[in-house]
Design brief:
This protein is mainly β and about 120 residues long. It has one helix at about 95-110, and strands spanning about 15-20, 25-35, 35-40, 50-60, 65-80, 85-95. A six-stranded antiparallel beta barrel has the order 1-2-3-6-5-4. This is PilZ domain-containing protein.
């Protein structure tokens, strides 16, 4: 029996790109997020114990990107299982409310909550 996929798989990391806030150059992709930090997947190793000014560009409903600026310190960096990629862990300094909203939206999107029955 042949089972066809109804929805094409998408690699999430190709959509959540992270930029240098001052140069606007890409530095990598979000690997995961938490309330106080994030993991970055990059093609170059990140400098450990250094502070970074990062920017997330999220698609906005009006076609203009929503910008989320972050100040973060790299706590660790190691080679990824993917050749020529590195994983780096960052702690965030005073993440803005927009970042907290992003985390909540991602948790809702990727959770498997039972649907609420309407009365």
């Amino acid at each position: 029996m042949v089972i066809e996929r109804l929805i094409e798989r998408q690699q999430l990391t190709y959509y959540l790109e992270v930029f240098n806030r001052f140069t606007d150059k890409p530095v990598g992709f979000l690997g995961n997020v938490s309330d106080g930090g994030l993991m970055l997947i990059s093609q170059l190793p990140m400098l450990v114990d250094a502070d970074f000014e990062l920017r997330l560009k999220l698609p906005g409903s009006d076609g203009c990107p929503q910008l989320i600026d972050l100040t973060a310190r790299c706590l660790w960096c190691r080679e990824d299982v993917t050749p020529n990629c590195y994983d780096s862990g960052f702690i965030l300094y005073q993440p803005p409310a927009e970042y907290t909203a992003l985390i909540s939206a991602l948790q809702r999107y990727f959770s498997f909550q039972p649907l609420q029955a309407s009365a």
